[in-house]
Specification:
The protein is of the alpha+beta class. The chain is 20% helix and 30% strand. The protein is built from 6 helices and 9 strands. A 9-stranded antiparallel beta sheet has the order 1-5-4-3-2-6-7-8-9. Residues 66-88 have a biased composition (Low complexity).
Length: 253
């Protein structure tokens, strides 16, 4: 993976498992359909390697091949060579003998199989118009999964990949704060959620000149108006995530 600007390294991207979209597309249908629809790849560029996987810099091999076990954290070391890539994961692929699943593919299958055992789904999008961070969170009792997509200026290295990790609810606010730092320009953070019983919600934050603001939304009958923004403080992202998680996880339980 190419080096990234130093300012963007603070978000700890190397702590995620980075998986190419082709590998996700080639999951069995029963697993692929569990993926959040807005992040499920609809097509793969022809130039994308057919079975390659890239991982964060300076990472080490997973400690366990158990797909349902603890988060292996950082998976693999460096980019795989073309020869190694051709031997990875026979999910799909044609012609040759069936190959055993490699550790990363086994972990990916386990990760996908757990996505429907959740009570709450959150989607966080931070966008400046030229940079976009899209985080999908699937949360349940003792289960937390995060799926991250990065697009736009300065994030080209991740254009054909999604980043995965298991996550504890108590870490989500800090993780989203770190990811927001990847967007260097003025931006808008949109947080949508859905939980048990059909409850849904939508929240917004706006960052201008490094300061977070929260729009005041007023509802009057069938009309909705947005008033002037109110400064939300340095901990605005964590505060918003904490409030939403408390509401949704309690409702989901």
């Amino acid at each position: 993976m190419n080096a990234r600007p130093a300012a963007r390294e603070t978000a700890g991207i190397d702590s995620w498992i980075v998986v190419d979209l082709d590998r996700i597309t080639r999951l069995p249908e029963r697993l692929r359909r569990l993926w959040p629809p807005d992040l499920l790849p609809r097509r793969v560029e022809r130039d994308c390697p057919s079975a390659s996987a890239e991982v964060g810099q300076g990472s080490t091999a997973p400690e366990s091949t158990d797909p349902g076990g603890a988060d292996p954290g950082r998976a693999g070391a460096g980019e795989r060579s073309g020869a190694a890539a051709s031997e990875i994961g026979g999910v799909g692929g044609g012609g040759g003998a069936t190959r055993d699943l490699d550790v990363l593919t086994a972990w990916l299958r386990g990760f996908a199989s757990e996505l429907n055992r959740v009570s709450t789904r959150l989607s966080v999008v931070v966008s400046s118009g030229t940079e976009t961070v899209h985080l999908a969170l699937c949360l349940g009792s003792g289960i937390g999964h995060a799926i991250l997509a990065l697009q736009g200026e300065g994030l080209e290295d991740f254009a054909q990949h999604q980043l995965l990790r298991r996550i504890e609810p108590g870490r989500i606010g800090h993780v989203v704060e770190d990811l927001a730092e990847l967007v260097e320009q003025d931006c808008v953070l949109t947080l949508s959620w859905a939980c048990g019983g059909g409850a849904t919600g939508l929240e917004f934050l706006r960052r201008k000149g490094g300061v977070w603001f929260r729009p005041v939304i007023e509802r009057d009958g069938d009309s909705v108006t947005v008033d002037d923004d109110v400064a939300a403080g340095d901990a605005a992202v964590r505060t918003l995530l904490s409030a939403v998680l408390t509401r949704t996880l309690t409702a989901g339980a």
